[in-house]
Write the structure tokens for this entry.
Amino acid sequence: MDLHQHDLDAQVKKILDMGVTVRKANVTIPYFIEAVPLPTIFRYRGVFFERVPSVSEGTSFKLSWTVFANGCFDYLHLGHIRLLRQAYEEYRGTVIIGLNSDMSYKALRGCLPVFDERQRKEMLLALKYVSSVHVFSSEEELRNLVISVRPSVLLKGGDYRDKPIVGEEYVAGYGGEVRRDFYVGGFSSGWLKDTLMNRMRRGTQ
């Protein structure tokens, strides 16, 4: 069940606005509900709240965050690992990946990926930070995937600071977070590819 902001008690909203502290602490949130009764499980700003036993006066809810990121992930490198690890550790929730299909990759890069979509999906799922991987073939499919997942956080690396992110208007519309500030450490698939090619050329000289 989704609740709009105006449906929530002022004390609840005040605590939810402390999102950074709550997110990093990963704790249950006690608060007092007088005028607005809340169900056992509900979703607000893309975050799931589940009622749990409370030892203090009031009501406690445990938070569950869902982070969504998308990309090609052909040359899986340290930048990818750090981004996914940071998301997993900061939110302590579910990390879902949207993966470009082989045809989508070709449309973007002009060639087929080194690893096909099944292999790339398998590599991503081998990471403990990743909960699920969904392959998409077009921008429309990606947008529909974001709508279906309805994430708490839509994530891209710092190299997307000035670039649009598919689905960001939808996520921002219900109060979810859109983040472009995750650390990728200067690594990129292009950098890795160029580095390998340069070393191969030097090796043949």
